[in-house]
Amino acid sequence: MSSRAEFLQNKLDALLTIANHNEQKQTHFQEYELSLLNSSGLFELLSILLESHQVQFQLTEVALVLLDPEYEFQRLLDSYEIPNAWQNRLLFADSEQALHQDYKIPYRPRLSEYIPQQHQALFSNNNTLRSVAILPLIRQHKIIGSLNLGSRQVDRFQSGIGTQFLQHLTAVISACLENARLQESIKQLGLLDPLTAINNRRFFDQRVIEETSLAQRNNTPLSCLFIDLDHFKSINDQYGHQAGDNVLKQAAKIFTDIMRTSDILARYGGEEFVILLTNTPLQTAYDIAERIRKIIAAHDFKISSSQSLSITLSIGIAVLDESKRINTSQQLIKAADEAVYDAKLNGRNRVHHAI
């Protein structure tokens, strides 16, 4: 083979190697894009962005900032246990101004060296970065957040290199985030009571099974408070159903304010509410129930602009305990329901616990 032919053959081999490498990269990206599009919900999508993305693209750090002025994303995530690995990597901005001023998010993708004064707020978990890509997420011509990538390699992200690919990636991510937000909102609407805006019975029936299993696995106490507003029918009969609705909404607000972040509140039906107290023994549950009872009894419930009334409630308590008769979620609810019935038979405005 002549030197000219050998030169051309070597050049062709090099081009084929590059083409093969690019094809592999394209296939890899398409698989990643499909995982984004096929994610089952907001939590899985965030897991892909904050965990899988870092591994698949061999990045030192990944951070995500979401514009969340109405705390919608944060409320949607309340029902999930957020991994420790997401701490300081999943960030929320309460205004577009905060995106630009606090996190220094540009309107266009910016690939550059890592500059602590500009990028520290985004990558507070890591001080070894040398180059970064700050990628604004745009949906319907409005910024909704930013995906931020960091590398220890100084030449990993350079201005003007790979920008078109990254713009396509962020367009896909922006669409997926918006769809996940809408799907999660619709799903949660089906699990919320429309009157009081707290969880409904369907939600509670799902969670009580999960919490019962968790309590048994960890050998921790799980208490259930079954709450029934006393003489509620007479409120509807005497003042009308709108007055009754106002009472229910105010009662739900009081329960919500008293609850701990780990507790689970739901409207069970009509004037009945239920609260699951995780990792809570009987005496603590009783103290919480007594506090609820006293606050409700002392509260003036406004039923119109000029009229208010007082109400009381009865509470039944049951505690999951495998050594006794309560060792399933159904038995827990049944025992708490029977306990509140006993409280009513014994004069109302009191707390009873299942024996």
UniProtKB/TrEMBL annotation:
Residues 220-355 form the GGDEF domain. This is GGDEF domain-containing protein. GO terms for molecular function: diguanylate cyclase activity. One of its GO terms (biological process) is cell adhesion involved in single-species biofilm formation. It holds the Pfam family GGDEF. One of its GO terms (cellular component) is plasma membrane. Signal peptide: none annotated. It comes from marine sediment metagenome.
